[in-house]
UniProtKB/TrEMBL annotation:
Transmembrane segments: none
Comp. bias regions, Pro residues: 268-278
Domain of life: Bacteria
A Pfam short name: HTH_21
Function description: Involved in the transposition of the insertion sequence.
Biased segments, Basic and acidic residues type: 230-251
Biased composition regions of type Basic residues, renumbered to the chain: 215-229
UniProt xrefs under NCBIfam families: transpos_IS3 (NF033516)
Spans annotated as Disordered: 214-285
Stretches assigned to the Integrase catalytic domain: 125-240
Upper taxonomic lineage: Bacteria, Bacillati, Actinomycetota, Actinomycetes, Kitasatosporales
Name the UniProt record assigns to this protein: Integrase catalytic domain-containing protein
InterPro entries per UniProt: HTH-like_dom, Integrase_cat-core, RNaseH-like_sf, RNaseH_sf, Transpos_IS3, Transposase_IS3/IS150/IS904
Length: 324
C-alpha cells in the first residue's frame, strides 16, 4: 500500500503528524500528494487511453512491432507526440511484447557414409492396419542448466499410439535401438513392418540397421529435396513438398522477391505546430534590414586627377579654430 494513502485512511484516528513521523515521510509531501490527486487521476486515464492505442497498433502488426516501431507509427500517424520511454513503460505494464523468433538449432545430422534406403511411405502417413507402418524420431527435452535429455519414440501410423520409447542423456545409436526393442516387446513382433525415419546419424547407423534386420523391419527414409545436402549439412526438420515442375521453377525465378512491410526508419521530426506559434530563434528566417540607400545620382564622385578632397572636420564651421 502507498504510505500516503495509509496516512489518508488513518488520519482521523491518529492524526497526520503522528502517522508521518511513524511512516518516515514529510507532512509537506503528504499534502502535496493530496493536492495532486486529480492530476494523477487524469494522467492515469490518459495512460489507459494510450495503452489501448498501443494494443491496437501491436495487434495490427500481428504482434511484430516493438517499442521503436510503435513509437514511429504514432509519429507518422500525425497524432500527439509520444516519447519512446513512455511507450516502453506502458507496454511493459500491459504485458505487450513483440514476437521474437526462436533460434534454429541443429537437430538432424546425416552420416555421409551411411547406406541409402528408399522412401517406402511416399508421404502417405496413414495406415489401414496396425503393426504395418511406424515412424520414429528424437525429441530434445531441456532439463535446466543448458542441458538436455533425449526422448526417442516409435509411433504406429494406424492407431497413432506410442508403441515404444526410450530416454537418455545422449544421442548415440543405442537410444534408437532400445526404442525399437521396446516397440517389439509391446507389439510382440514387427515382422514385415515399415520403419520410417529421417536421415539422422542414429537411424543410418549400422547398429540400428542390424536391429531392424533382426526384427524383420524394413527401413524407410524420406527423400532429400532442394536445400538439403548430406555430409554433415543441416536438414530441415519438416517434410518437404514434391519437387516443382520446370515451368514453376521458371515462374519463381522471374517473380520479384516478397518483402514484408516495415515501418519507416526512426527520424526526429518536430510535431506540427498551429499557425502563429512563435518559432525558436535558430529556426526563424532573418529578414534583411530595410535600409534606404541614397540614390546614385546624389552621390558625389571622388576626384582622381590630383585634386584632393576637402578635409573632414569634427567641429562646426564657427569652431574650426578651436579644433585646430
Amino acid at each position: 500500500m502507498n504510505r500516503f494513502q495509509c496516512v489518508a485512511d488513518l488520519r482521523a484516528e491518529h492524526g497526520v503528524k503522528r502517522l508521518c513521523r511513524v511512516l518516515g515521510i514529510a507532512r509537506s509531501s503528504f499534502y502535496y500528494w493530496q493536492a495532486t490527486a486529480l492530476a494523477r487521476a487524469a494522467r492515469q486515464a490518459a495512460d489507459e487511453k494510450l495503452t489501448t492505442k498501443i494494443a491496437a497498433v501491436h495487434a495490427a502488426s500481428d504482434g511484430t512491432y516493438g517499442v521503436p516501431r510503435v513509437t514511429t507509427e504514432f509519429r507518422e500517424s500525425g497524432g500527439e507526440p509520444v516519447n519512446h520511454k513512455k511507450v516502453a513503460r506502458l507496454m511493459k505494464t500491459a504485458g505487450i511484447a513483440r514476437f521474437r523468433l526462436r533460434r534454429k538449432h541443429r537437430t538432424t545430422v546425416a552420416d555421409p557414409a551411411a547406406a541409402k534406403a528408399s522412401d517406402l511411405i511416399g508421404r502417405d502417413f496413414t495406415a489401414t492396419e496396425v503393426n504395418t507402418k511406424y515412424v520414429g524420431d528424437i525429441t530434445y527435452l531441456p532439463v535446466g542448466g543448458g542441458k538436455f535429455c533425449y526422448l526417442a519414440t516409435v509411433i504406429d501410423l494406424a492407431s497413432r499410439r506410442l508403441a515404444g520409447w526410450a530416454i537418455a542423456d545422449h544421442m548415440r545409436a543405442e537410444l534408437v535401438v532400445d526404442t525399437l526393442a521396446a516397440a517389439e516387446r509391446t507389439r510382440g513382433s514387427l515382422a514385415a513392418a515399415i520403419m520410417h525415419t529421417d536421415h539422422g546419424a542414429q537411424y543410418t547407423s549400422r547398429a540400428f540397421a542390424d536391429a531392424c534386420r533382426r526384427a524383420g523391419v524394413r527401413q524407410s527414409r524420406r527423400r532429400l529435396q532442394r536445400g538439403q545436402r548430406r555430409g554433415g549439412e543441416l536438414e530441415r526438420d519438416h517434410e518437404t513438398r514434391d519437387p516443382p515442375e520446370p515451368k514453376e521453377l521458371v515462374k519463381r525465378a522471374r517473380s520479384p522477391p516478397r518483402t514484408l512491410p516495415l515501418a519507416a526508419p526512426l527520424q526526429h521530426r518536430p510535431p506540427p505546430q498551429p499557425p502563429g506559434t512563435p518559432q525558436p530563434h535558430h529556426l526563424r528566417t532573418r529578414a534583411r534590414p530595410n535600409i534606404n540607400y541614397a540614390d546614385a545620382s546624389r552621390i558625389t564622385p571622388c576626384p582622381t586627377s590630383g585634386v584632393r578632397p576637402p578635409p573632414v572636420t569634427c567641429c562646426p564651421p564657427g569652431l574650426r579654430t578651436i579644433c585646430g
